[in-house]
Design a protein that fits this description.
The protein is of the alpha+beta class and 489 residues long. The protein is built from 16 helices and 17 strands. Helix 8 crosses helix 9. The termini are far apart.
């Protein structure tokens, strides 16, 4: 067994005799253009790995990660969703035979074995699933033109220089989401005991429709939408225009700000995220007469006396404009009309309320929700100014970040998220030892601990352009402090 095939993810097996049959595979009419690129990319990768061939099977195995890296270098779609979709499509056609690949001490992975081209040479020619939608591209342009002429609030990405986060949605409610997309609590309500200083608040998360409850990876969607809404509101304020809780968004623009190309699979990923954010309700249970209730209400600007508070990030989500212009003839709706929770909108639109915070826009491209929540934890506990240095154990970090998750699940996913973050940042990673993690203006030192597995020490990078000492935020703080001192003098 080739050593490289022991890593995680699916495995792809190509026999040596198939390496020289590129022409046969490339001429198969049962493949779409993008499926053909995927298949030929796999064969080409295996042709560079003949030295790893298993002598017993005369086959080369490559992992999903290796295939993704190879396809990415060739600018071929390589996201997890896309890879899964292509693999299943080729299995249905008969070009892949799907079996199981057993790894030592691990659950079996999917094994996709390439079959002979001759087995599918008589398969039906792939017919275009969708009509020629070039005319509808013109319709999409008409949509935007009409929205502009109506002075509608279009969420745009062209002027974005900084990201924005919101105190409730990227803070409190981020800790009350499902811990991952595989978290089985898809439609089952669950309770989270959220730490609020030295006090605790109970929050019940549930779904209001047949859609799934949102999970932590939806944090990226929240940050992207909040960023775009803040920019639109700021622009309209500067022009003294009316501001209302109704925004229009192009799903391709939303993909773009999140660092995704506008492929169909990515659009579906973002659409599904928006549906979850529309259907998920956070029920905040507080005793309005208690000291904790008063503190929580004051902290987040909640009307005093309210005991039963319900929040949904998106209170309206529809694509009626797209359907009006032939949305059923194109692949999926592209334009959406959205509205935020009324309190969230009011806080963002009120210049006297500080409910959003400036972030490095690079965080918008981070897919891991656990990294988003860890970054928020740093913002809350390390702060964005001063000299705070905070120590915390991994078990305590779990109780702050995702209290309702099982510790072992959190630990495994969080450590993997940190490792992936390091690799994407071209930073070294030590599986069992000391690591230094750069987290968008924060520096986190992570070291093994016998009693708590890991201990983290987090502090602010004073040279960071967004939260460092010379950032606009900290320069304003210093200026206000000096001004206050002058007034006292």
């Amino acid at each position: 067994m080739p050593a490289k095939a022991k890593s995680g993810g699916s495995v792809y097996r190509v026999r040596q005799r198939h390496l020289g049959q590129l022409k046969l595979y490339s001429e198969l009419e049962c493949l779409t253009k993008i499926e053909r690129k995927f298949l030929l990319g796999l064969i080409e990768l295996c042709s560079t790995r003949e030295d790893t061939m298993d002598p017993e099977t005369s086959a080369i195995d490559v992992t999903r990660t290796e295939l993704q890296e190879w396809l990415s270098e060739k600018s071929i779609g390589s996201g997890n969703t896309i890879i899964k979709k292509r693999s299943n499509a080729l299995t249905e056609i008969g070009l892949f035979k799907k079996e199981k690949f057993q790894r030592p001490k691990c659950k079996p992975a999917d094994l996709f074995i390439l079959t002979d081209a001759s087995e599918v040479i008589d398969a039906p020619t792939q017919v275009k699933q969708f009509k020629d939608h070039r005319p509808h591209r013109l319709k999409l342009k008409e949509i935007k033109t009409q929205l502009i002429e109506a002075d509608s609030q279009i969420l745009d990405t062209s002027q974005i220089r900084l990201a924005r986060s919101e105190r409730l949605w990227n803070g409190v409610f981020g800790s009350c989401m499902r811990s991952s997309r595989t978290d089985p609590r898809r439609n089952q309500h669950f309770s989270t005991i959220y730490r609020f200083g030295s006090d605790q608040i109970e929050i019940v998360t549930s779904s209001q429709t047949d859609s799934e409850i949102c999970h932590v990876d939806d944090q990226r969607t929240i940050r992207a939408i909040i960023t775009m809404v803040c920019l639109q509101i700021s622009e309209r304020m500067d022009l003294s225009k009316e501001i209302k809780n109704e925004f229009y968004i192009d799903i391709v623009d939303l993909c773009r700000i999140m660092g995704l190309d506008g492929s169909g699979a990515n659009r579906d990923t973002v659409r599904d995220s928006m549906k979850r954010l529309y259907s998920t309700n956070f029920n905040v249970l507080i005793d309005s007469d208690s000291e904790t209730g008063h503190k929580f209400a004051a902290q987040f600007g909640i009307t005093p006396g309210a005991d039963d508070l319900n929040f949904r990030f998106l209170t309206e989500l529809d694509s009626s404009i797209d359907r009006e212009y032939g949305g059923g003839s194109i692949r999926r709706p592209r334009w959406y009309r959205i509205a935020l929770h009324s309190k969230t909108f009011q806080d963002i639109a009120d210049v006297n309320v500080i409910s959003t915070f400036i972030d490095n826009k690079d965080i918008l491209t981070v897919s891991s929700g656990l990294i988003h929540i860890f970054y928020t934890w740093c913002c809350i506990h390390v702060k964005r100014h001063g000299n705070r240095s905070v120590n915390i154990t991994l078990p305590d970090l779990q109780r702050y970040m995702i209290p309702s998750a099982r510790y072992d699940n959190f630990r495994d996913r969080f450590l993997m998220a940190l490792k992936n973050h390091q690799e994407k940042s071209n930073e070294p990673w030590n599986n069992d030892g000391f690591n230094i993690i750069k987290l968008f203006g924060y520096v986190v030192k992570m070291e093994p601990d016998m009693a708590n597995e890991f201990i983290f020490n987090a502090y602010r990078d004073k040279s960071d352009p967004i939260i460092g000492d010379k950032s606009i935020h900290n320069r304003l703080l210093k200026s206000n402090k000096r001004q206050g001192q002058l007034e006292l003098d």
